[in-house]
Amino acid sequence: MPRSQPIIAIDGPSGSGKSTVSKMLARRLGYVYLDTGAMYRCVGLLALRQGLDPLSDEALSPVLDGLAIRFELGDGETQKVFCNDQEVTLEIRRPEVSQAASKASSRPLVREKLVAMQRKMGARGGVVMEGRDIGTNVFPHADFKFFVTASAVERARRRFLELQARGDRTTYEDVLADQLERDKRDSERELNPLIQAPDAILIDTSNMSIDTVVEALAAVVEDRFRTC
After folding, report:
1. What is the distance between the alpha carbons of residues 185 and 96, in angstroms, rounded to a whole number?
2. C-alpha separations of 26 from 6, 10, 218 in Å
3. pLDDT of 2
4. pLDDT the model gives residue 225
């Protein structure tokens, strides 16, 4: 089915700024924003709550049966995340949930289930979808692909400040170690690892403001899609 509006895929590692950029870009263009990472976090959260091994397909199978995830716009730039009709917006951002989500995302059963959900959500276009394998696996024929990254030190700094603002007493060193571990797992997993699609535009946000990044991406989309 032809689309009147594009699918925009934004991939990149944790702390690169891709979530904030994706939300702002979607708002700028009037498109729907879909945070696929939040979907894997929901699975990780349920695994933690139920004491399940996030690396076991057998253990996670009951969690995936009937799994329902939805997003709702909140106040300002906030997007609320609901898992099985319970709001989990803040809870899924805890460091331990991040680790469980990274482990669960390596499981074929989990990826099969969530990728099917993601493709259904974004099929009509007019969507900015961000994650780690959107441009390489979920929508390899996306109209626009961006790979948003930043240095490991800068990404850890951003994450540390974010956690501090929430009252988390973790140290910068712990945040950096946690991030490097997750980067390694995400980029080396056998199934759909975190890599830049060959046709994706690389954006290094290490020394760029969020507004500058959004303007750059919006310019690409607005200039090219008008001529499609």
Report:
1. 15
2. 11, 11, 9
3. 52
4. 64
**Phi and psi at residue 27, to the nearest 5°:** -65, -40
Q: Look up residue 200 and give its amino acid.
A: A
- What is residue 164's three-state secondary structure? helix
| Residue 148 near residue 12 (C-beta atoms within 8 A) | yes
Q: In 66-77, which positions are buried (b, 16+ CB within 10 angstroms) versus exposed (e)?
A: ebebebeeeeee
Structural domain spans, the chain: 7-225
Alpha-carbon distance of 21 to 27, in angstroms, equals: 10
Which parts of 39-193 are beta strand (E)?
A: 69-73, 79-83, 86-87, 127-131, 144-149
What is the bridge-based pairing of β-strands 79-83 and 86-87? antiparallel
The C-alpha angle with vertex 96 and arms to 90 and 100, in degrees rounded to 5, equals: 105
Q: Is 67 strand, coil or helix?
A: coil
* CATH 3.40.50.300 given to domain 7-225: yes
Q: Which two tokens stand for residue 27?
A: 């708002």
pTM score, whole prediction: 0.84
- Mean pLDDT, 10 residues at a time, over the chain (228 residues)? 80 90 91 91 96 94 93 74 94 92 92 94 92 93 95 92 86 91 87 92 93 94 71
Residue with tokens 């680790």: 99
Q: For position 74, what pLDDT does the model report?
A: 65
pLDDT at 1: 44
